[in-house]
Specification:
Chain A is mainly α. The first copy, chain A, is 62% helix and 8% strand. Chain A binds a DNA duplex (23 and 23 nucleotides) through residues 1, 28, 44-46, 61-63, 71-78, 81, 95-99.
DNA sequence: TATTGTTATACTCTATAACTATA
DNA sequence: TATAGTTATAGAGTATAACAATA
């Protein structure tokens, strides 16, 4: 059995020809790689994305972040709470019910590390995309979640 | 506030220009849509993918499926257990420790429904991909998880 | 020694319901 | 009535460690 790997007949894998399956595997692989980059920074993916949203939009509310990033309000609460406990984010009441979020100075330092990790990750990712696909790859991905599903998508 | 939506200034969203972020959002959106298609069939995504792997490779073992689909051995046990309890999959000892998996007749019927859902989903997905991207989209996605990461990918 | 299947366990993300206080 | 934030809870996917049986 010294060569069990070489002699093992390859399994049929009809899943690999399906764009939907490939999309999920690609996303999972890239998320795993990106999360490894975030480990030394002490962040998880959702925390990093929320920090970036606040850095881009100082004073934004939790609900607006949730709508933009597709994170439930209920899940934003403990997430922002952790960032506040770490001294990275400050809440300031906008009106009686809304909190405007801003980065503290420690938060600004943290976002710099996050952006470096993001840049490295995006470079690594695009390097694996075939050259002839690079110009259209981002638009194709964005079309899948930004465009409304075609009419009667569930009946297509 | 009758027009709060119209007058709400659009937030800056630097995430939307990142292929890695777009990949995750696209995958999440497509998974949500596909899972909705599977609800009436009574399956979850991982169950459907395992059924397809067995249909393509009768007699395959749990460990081989796990390696092909990137599912941990430990997580295959309860997953296959559920399919067996529903009478869709049969286990037959290959040797003292391996079980070869095959579909029962009920499993064959189930896989037909799964394949119909998959076909509808893939059609709906590709319809949203810009025409000029379709020829290269699948290869780009597969490159992201099938190709080994570039050397020193975490330092790139 | 390595592999298969298994159990137990834990973490992350996600989803819903319900509550308060405010608009 | 609708919205913001919160709490509690549950489901699904994923990850590691450990074990017995077998190769």
């Amino acid at each position: 059995m010294f060569n069990s790997i070489l002699y093992k007949k390859p399994m049929k894998d009809s899943l690999a020809t399906l764009p939907g399956y490939a999309l999920r595997r690609a996303s999972a692989a890239m998320m795993a790689e990106f999360n490894q980059r975030l480990v030394p920074l002490g962040f998880r993916f959702t925390e990093a994305s929320v920090l970036m949203a606040i850095a881009d939009n100082p004073g934004i509310t939790q609900s607006d972040i949730g709508r933009a990033l597709d994170i439930q309000r209920a899940n934003m609460a403990p997430l922002v709470g952790r960032l506040e406990d770490r001294g990275l984010v400050a809440r300031a009441r906008v009106d009686g019910r809304s909190h405007g979020l801003t980065l503290t100075s420690a938060g600004v330092q943290a976002i710099n590390g996050v952006r470096a990790a993001v840049d490295a990750h995006e470079t690594s990712l695009m390097a694996r995309v075939p050259v002839q696909a690079r110009a259209v790859f981002l638009d194709a991905l964005n079309a899948l979640w930004q465009e409304p599903a075609a009419q009667s998508s569930l009946a297509a």
